[in-house]
Amino acid sequence: MTIPFSTGTFPASAATDAARSPGLEGVVAADTILSEVDGARGRLILRGRAIEDLAGQMSFEAAVAFFWQGLLPLPSSGDLAAAFAEARLKAHAIAVPVMQSAGPGLGSYERMRLGLAALCRDDAAEDALTMTGAMPVLLAAAARIGRGESPIAPSVAAGSASDLLAMLTGTEPSARAVAAIDRYLVTILDHGFNASTFTARVIASTGADMGSAVLGAMGALKGPLHGGAPGPVLDMLDAIGTPERAVGWISAALARGERLMGFGHRIYRQRDPRADVLKAALGQLEAADGRVALAEVVEREATEALARHKPGRPLHTNVEFYTAVLLEAAGIDRSLFTPLFATGRVAGWCAHVAEQRATGRLIRPGARYVGPQPAG
Ligand code: COA
Question: Rounded CA gap, 133 and 103, in Å?
Fold first, then answer.
């Protein structure tokens, strides 16, 4: 007997158990003060404020300070910019040589994990600050090493978003590109008990250190059903090519049983509010010719096709769709989309780890055994 876990199909006897929830769908695993994902209304709230009131309204550093308040120690000034700049210097001195020492052929994401591991000191507060502040250095260095280029030293005068772009490209970034990256990092800072955050909390629930929890979360984020989707969104737009080809391409992909990247969500039954927050920033950037128009047509046609394809399951645009279009317009290579997602989400993971350590229990669900019993 085969058990196709991907669709959650189990033997009939097990399916009658009301406590069983494949994928933990609908299960409330803990209380949190951090974020609420309201799937029915299509709303995301971070510590009492709607995502629309944070992203594009404040810098990444200010948003993290707001998000961490009461859970992780903040500098007395309340401003994380200087602490993050210090973390970038530390990362350049300690983590980058470790990342350089690994052989070629390692992907950017994997190289970043090496750098992150080199920075952890088993002190939750310090590690949260160091890891969150260091991510721009790790991302830029990983990308440059992968391209056979030397990593560029950080600038303490710059903010995280600006320094990230400067270290990545070796040129002074435009104010618009910096604003887009800042907005993106705040938009994806936290999002309830998604797979990577839950992973971080599971690891933290065992009493393991902050670094282990964040590194585990990075592993969970990598998959295409979670943070690995935006690159494939661009692949899809490339394959469609022109607006006239959208309908045919989408119906052929669905007929082949493929998933359309950038659509559908476990919680949202409406459009993901983060898609609009990111789409709003596109007007300020110069996207490649026709890209936004193509994206809008694909969004409309895919939403209609998915409604026909799965009438019982509302499938709308998720955050990854306009992430892809926005980051491409900001000059980020698609291979760096998931690393950039992690760069913003580390702040969220750290807060969840702190909350889990303060209030949580060991997370240990059961499983229904459906294999054979011993003979006799
Ligand atoms: N394209 C086509 N069909 C989709 C789909 C998509 N993007 N998303 C879900 N479906 C279908 C599934 O095939 C499934 O059909 P089935 O019941 O016949 O097997 C049904 O809708 C429910 O999907 P399921 O995987 O159970 O929902 P989920 O809540 O576990 O999945 C996602 C959520 C995000 C993993 C899923 O929507 C997806 O794979 N999206 C594409 C990848 C993506 O954009 N990831 C980024 C997420 S932010």
Answer: 25
* Residues near ligand 1 (Cβ within 6 A): 7, 23, 224-226, 229, 259-266, 306, 310, 313, 315, 318-320
pTM for this model (two decimals): 0.91
Name the residue with the closest Cα to ligand 1, atom 25: 7
Residue tagged active-site, from 299, 320, 328, 355? 320
CA-based max dimension of the chain: 74
CATH homologous superfamily of 230-329 equals Cytochrome P450-Terp, domain 2 (1.10.230.10)
Probe residue for ligand 1, chosen from 37, 267, 304, 310 as the CB with the greatest number of ligand atoms within 8 Å = 310
Please write the tens of the pLDDT for every residue from 226-270: 888 788 999 999 999 999 999 999 999 999 999 999 999 999 998
Task: Give residue-wise pLDDT tens across range 25-58.
Answer: 888 999 999 999 999 999 999 999 999 999 999 9
Q: Are 31 and 360 in contact (CB under 8 A)?
A: no
Query: 322-359: per-residue pLDDT in tens?
Result: 999 999 999 999 999 999 999 999 999 999 999 999 99
C-alpha 345 to ligand 1 mean position (Å):
22
Q: Where are the domains of the chain?
A: 2-46, 49-222+337-359, 230-329
DSSP string, 17-56: -TT--GGGTT------SSEEEETTTTEEEETTEEGGGTTT
49-222+337-359 is classed in which CATH architecture? Orthogonal Bundle (1.10)
Tell me what the mean pLDDT of segment 61-66 comes to.
97
Residue nearest to atom 36 of ligand 1 (CA): 264
